[in-house]
Amino acid sequence: MDRRYVVAAGLVGLLILLSVFIHLITNNKIVIGYNKDYAPDQPIPFSHEIHAGEFKVDCQYCHAGASVSRHATVPSLNICMNCHLTVNGRTDEGKKHVERLREAFNNNEPIEWKKVHLLPDHVKFNHAAHIAKGKACQTCHGPVETMEKVYQWSSLSMGWCVNCHREPENNAPINCSTCHY
Ligand code: HEC
Ligand code: HEC
Ligand code: HEC
Ligand code: HEC
Ligand code: HEC
Fold first, then answer.
1. What is the pTM of this model?
2. What is the 3-state secondary structure (H, E, C) of the chain?
């Protein structure tokens, strides 16, 4: 067969694939990195509304990493047990969940919380740097203290990060290597 036909057929094939890809992306059939509103089921339902809202437990009592490291971190069972050795649940369901917490604690089994937020591996993010500049958790995570079930409130898209870095009062870096490995 004439090589030119092979090349032409190859190019047509590529164009078709590309247009299918663009179609899928623009119609949100493939979502790259944008998991706004994502709220996976957790092994034990945990209500921020009760803990951070009603009882006003400080965010950093449980997410102690936020002001000192890249990761805010999710609390270990020890922290829950500071209260739940004595505090029972409120509803029948809740009481069962607190019983499960105690069992897990006594058996030394960690609770496998599902990640809600997850940036792609090529992106650098650092909680401590943002907290040091006085950014409240809610600026990026929304009104978590009202959330019965926590969900991803921001898009976490590159545009979202860069728009805030560009605000004159932030004067934050926008060169590629600030945020990318
Ligand atoms: C009593 C402990 C406790 C307090 C107080 C608390 N959290 Fe949490 N937080 C958790 C636990 C446990 C999880 C993991 C389970 C879940 O996602 O619901 C979590 C999950 C999260 C997540 C999602 C993490 C992920 O996987 O992406 C965010 C964001 C968050 N908390 C923000 C906050 C903010 C903001 C506050 C204060 C308004 C706060 N939390 C107060 C215990 C706490
Ligand atoms: C400038 C925006 C911003 C602020 C302010 C912020 N976060 Fe986050 N948070 C993020 C992003 C982005 C991620 C996802 C990080 C990743 O995937 O590496 C995240 C992830 C988390 C997680 C999941 C575990 C982790 O560290 O990856 C928790 C918990 C959390 N944030 C809690 C908090 C709390 C509590 C505060 C306030 C003390 C706070 N965040 C302030 C943007 C922010
Ligand atoms: C500062 C104290 C404190 C800490 C720390 C704490 N809790 Fe609670 N928790 C409470 C209180 C108070 C209640 C409500 C009890 C009531 O109203 O009877 C509660 C209720 C609950 C309930 C039952 C909800 C319902 O609907 O009945 C669960 C489940 C729960 N907490 C899980 C956790 C987990 C998981 C952790 C650790 C990540 C944790 N708690 C850490 C104080 C705390
Ligand atoms: C609410 C505004 C805001 C948002 C949203 C935001 N940033 Fe920032 N960012 C800042 C500010 C303010 C600084 C601190 C600049 C300084 O230290 O002078 C900063 C600094 C940084 C730094 C430098 C940290 C260091 O160690 O010096 C990185 C990296 C960064 N941001 C990444 C991100 C990424 C990635 C996102 C999105 C996932 C993001 N930021 C979203 C405001 C924001
Ligand atoms: C303030 C932080 C920030 C800066 C500055 C930044 N990026 Fe990003 N970038 C991100 C985040 C967060 C993502 C992941 C979310 C997304 O794809 O929108 C991303 C994603 C990307 C992607 C992958 C898109 C995909 O489909 O996965 C490329 C390519 C990229 N950035 C290139 C750049 C280049 C080139 C620059 C410099 C001109 C730059 N970025 C500057 C935060 C940043």
1. 0.91
2. CCHHHHHHHHHHHHHHHHHHHHHHHHCCCCCCCCCCCCCCCCCCCCCHHHHHHHCCCCHHHHCCCCCCCCCCCCCCHHHHHHHHCCCCCCCHHHHHHHHHHHHHHHCCCCCCCCCCCCCCCCECCCHHHHHHCCCCHHHHHCCHHHCCCCCCCCCCCHHHHHHHHHCCCCCCCCCHHHHEC
